[in-house]
Each structure stands twice: as structure tokens, then as C-alpha cells.
Amino acid sequence: MLVIFFLVFALHIVGVHLQKTAELKSNDCPRFDYEYKLLERLIRIEFAQREVEATLAEFRERFQTIQADVPRKLEDIRRLMDHKPKGFGSTYVRWGRTVCPGNETELVYKGFAGGSFFTHPGSAADFLCLTDEPVWGKHAGGLTNPALIYGVEYEHTFSTVSMNDDMPCCVCKTSRTPTIMIPGRTECYPGWTIEYKGYLMSGHHSQAGSTNFVCVDTNAEARSGGATDFNGHLAYLIQAACGSLPCPPYFEGRVLTCVVCSR
Asked: Vertex 46, ends 40 and 50: CA angle to 5°?
């Protein structure tokens, strides 16, 4: 500011001097007028430069403030992404088992796998996980021509189960969401957490009743006391059939695996 003051003062002095000189030497007016305007421009440039420097200093200060605040903002974002409110998550059925895996999961309920009879063409296709603690409503039974639900029997021997054993199940809750079943794999893709792995099973194509595909645990168990051949909803291991299914990557006759993953 002191420099500007002196420049303004100098401009004033020079102006007075030039004016008086011009009065004495009227023939030299153009030269004196040029010098006066040149000095005036220099002072204006000085003012403009000072304003630019002040603006740059203000921007630098703002940028430094924002830059210093970036780590805190990033930490806030990470904390929000990691924070999962209570109650959020997803559920899935673990077919063939009555306990949930120990990877931050909790048991919702356990029970028995159920579905429609394998020869009933108009029946529901779904596998259901029925609770082992049913609570009944007001209807006692005796309905005319009702729909029926049966237990699920394994139709192949694998793990510790034998043909005609009844299939148990449980419903598990995980804090991760979503949850998917991937057929044809025993490992999850990167970024996903494995819940359990197993074999793909369904009803048989020669039977009238429709069924869905389910992923039955590799270490499947049988329901205690459920080894009698009552039939019901039947579960078969599934083999690849090449043709419309490309081989490779699939192979004729290989049993399909599956994995349940969450993220």
C-alpha cells in the first residue's frame, strides 16, 4: 500500500510539473503528454497486478482449506460405507443342514425341506424350508380337495446321506447384502463372501411334478428318523447335457456344483 501511495503522489507531482512545463514550453506539449500518460498506465498496471495477487492469495487460501479437509471427508465416506445399520442384510436357505455357517451369520429357524408330490402335474414347483416349530391357525383341516405339501427325499447317495433320506434345512441371516446362488461353481467371484457350497439339485425331468433348482450343502445331513421311502418332493443331483449347453466349459455327465455368496 505504501508503494501505491508513493506512485499516486508521484503521478500527482509529475502531473503538476508537466502542466507547468507545458505552460512555459507549449511547443513540447506532445512529449510531456506522452510521458504523463505512460506513467499513468504504469500506475494502473501496478494497481491491476496488486488486485490479481490479492485474488490469487485468496484462491490459494481457499484451496489449502479444501485440501486440508479432503482426508476428513474421505474418512467420513469410508465410515458411512462400512457402517451397516442394525437390521440390514439378507437371508438365504441352507439346504441339507440345520446350522448356519460361522461367518457372521445367525440362525433364523431350522426345519424340514418340503414341496409338492413328484407325480402331481399341477402342483407348486418350489422347494420350501418348513419350520420345525409350526404355529397353527383356526382351520383344523378336513378341507375338500386341498393342495398338499410333502417332505423332500434325496434320490442319490452323497456326503453322509443315502437315497430316500429326508432333507433338513435352515434359514440364515447375514449382515451382508445381497445374497446370490451361483450354479456351476464352488468359489465366489472376487469381492464376494462364500456362505456355503454344494451340489445343484432338482426334480427329475421324467416326472410330472415341476421343481426349482436348489443348492444342497456339500456336507448334507439327513433328518433323524427320515430314512423310509415315502417319496414326496424328490431331489436329484444334476448332470450336464452338452448341446445347447456349451461344452467346454461344461462336460457331458459331470455333476453340477453350486455356491451361495454374499457381499
From this structure: 150
